Amino acid sequence: MFTLSLWDFNGQMSMATQSAVSTLSDLGLLRSQGLIGGKWVQAYDGKTIQVNNPATGEVITNVPCMGRKETTDAISSASEAFKTWSKLTANERSKCLRKWYDLLIAHKEDLGKLITLEQGKPLKEAIGEVTYGANFIEFYAEEAKRIYGDIIPATLTDRRLFVLKQPVGVVGAITPWNFPLAMITRKVGPALACGCTVVIKPSELTPLTALAAAELSIQAGIPPGAVNVVMGNASEIGDTLLESSQVRKITFTGSTAVGKKLMAGAAQTVKKVSLELGGNAPCIVFDDADIDVAVKGSLAAKFRNSGQTCVCANRIIVQEGIYEKFANAFVSAVKKLEVGYGFTESVSQGPLINDAAVQKVESFLQDATSKGAKVLLGGKRHSLGMTFYEPTVLGEVNNEMLIASQEVFGPVAPLLRFKTEEEAIHIANDTNAGLAAYVFTTNVQRSWRVSEALEYGIVGVNEGIISTEVAPFGGVKQSGLGREGSKYGMDEYLEVKYVCMGNMGGNA
């Protein structure tokens, strides 16, 4: 391990950053071009954008600022590759995916460093993301061989009725900055397994991990054009994907506002759409909960990736009989979280992605305190500067505050009180979001009752870490459409075709 020093204001890269960049470059994993048709290319007009380290402000490298023309060529490349990739046997596609998985795991520490450099999360957590992301590729390498159809009993003796499942076609995958590898593999894995080809648009804030993963896909033998990566002008790239009749599916992880625009735009050509959008996750702690389990689970659910995940606990709703005891124990646990640069081994909280994210946290905190919330811990920018923010706990929060109704996407844990089970469910469901929810109780009957009553796609009971490649991930209401991960994630990339064969009773 190595420790990242303070940013050198003379503009020199810190030694640790320079060391990591050098290693990644030597391995061929620090790519700074887009990938179209198996070729690494610059933007056609030569424009570039900087990729910065959010912990230090350092410029890691420049990448192409691509737009409509490059995206059009990437779509054409994917469309051409689809003709052959979709015709391979499931076993052949499976072998390519398995090789890709093996390479991702072989380079998990290198990819982890890359994630820490451009996204800021602690190295241990970043390496964990690589393993998590790679697991989707492994899972779908196996599921590729399990795409089954049906034979339907016919209503007439001279008929045979078949159901086939076929790949939908070219997929446009638009991914966010908070999980720069896992949000890609969760989409691209099932797409490739089904026989689709993809055009990936990673976040302009964290494109390097996507490019490294694409490089490893080439090494794994996934053919040119099956995986393409373009980045830069988000609106131009998005509009081109939406307008193209060759793109038959859009998959997106990000904000609800952008998801709505993509959904409307996809209507132009009636594309399939899957959306994993924002959340407002409630974490309900009942007075019969095991305090230690509830604190540990709530801590994990809230402060993973410094609060920058769509399933982070956005509201910790605590029954009044246990409120004070839980609050004290929770504050004590949060005090132990170490903030710092991701390459420092003991650090568990990195920076926020940019200053706009910090400003959002500050505005939510100001609104809450002006309406009666109490700062129990933290509540300001960290002394490290840049975009570091102190892990914060707010008490006496209510539903009238912005922080209870909107995602804070930062390391701020709001505590709300409730009296009855019915009230807890009402508070939890009083939102347009419906992605993830958490419940802490030792009452088995209550756990079933509340889990079923919560209007969310995912519920964790006595558990704060709920994501896994083997289970369906997705929300209800305005948190999105469709599911990712598990066998259900395959359905998003398949069309169901019914074949009716007549005249089966005659002689050949």
From TrEMBL:
<dbReference type="InterPro" id="IPR050740">
    <property type="entry name" value="Aldehyde_DH_Superfamily"/>
</dbReference>
<dbReference type="InterPro" id="IPR016162">
    <property type="entry name" value="Ald_DH_N"/>
</dbReference>
<dbReference type="InterPro" id="IPR029510">
    <property type="entry name" value="Ald_DH_CS_GLU"/>
</dbReference>
<dbReference type="InterPro" id="IPR010102">
    <property type="entry name" value="Succ_semiAld_DH"/>
</dbReference>
<feature type="domain" description="Aldehyde dehydrogenase">
    <location>
        <begin position="40"/>
        <end position="499"/>
    </location>
</feature>
<dbReference type="InterPro" id="IPR016160">
    <property type="entry name" value="Ald_DH_CS_CYS"/>
</dbReference>
<dbReference type="InterPro" id="IPR016161">
    <property type="entry name" value="Ald_DH/histidinol_DH"/>
</dbReference>
<dbReference type="InterPro" id="IPR015590">
    <property type="entry name" value="Aldehyde_DH_dom"/>
</dbReference>
<keyword id="KW-0496">Mitochondrion</keyword>
<dbReference type="Pfam" id="PF00171">
    <property type="entry name" value="Aldedh"/>
</dbReference>
<keyword id="KW-0560">Oxidoreductase</keyword>
<dbReference type="GO" id="GO:0005739">
    <property type="term" value="C:mitochondrion"/>
</dbReference>
<comment type="pathway">
    <text>Amino-acid degradation; 4-aminobutanoate degradation.</text>
</comment>
<protein>
    <recommendedName>
        <fullName>Succinate-semialdehyde dehydrogenase</fullName>
        <ecNumber>1.2.1.24</ecNumber>
    </recommendedName>
</protein>
<comment type="subunit">
    <text>Homotetramer.</text>
</comment>
<dbReference type="InterPro" id="IPR016163">
    <property type="entry name" value="Ald_DH_C"/>
</dbReference>
<comment type="similarity">
    <text>Belongs to the aldehyde dehydrogenase family.</text>
</comment>
<feature type="active site">
    <location>
        <position position="276"/>
    </location>
</feature>
<dbReference type="GO" id="GO:0004777">
    <property type="term" value="F:succinate-semialdehyde dehydrogenase (NAD+) activity"/>
</dbReference>
<dbReference type="GO" id="GO:0009450">
    <property type="term" value="P:gamma-aminobutyric acid catabolic process"/>
</dbReference>
<keyword id="KW-0520">NAD</keyword>
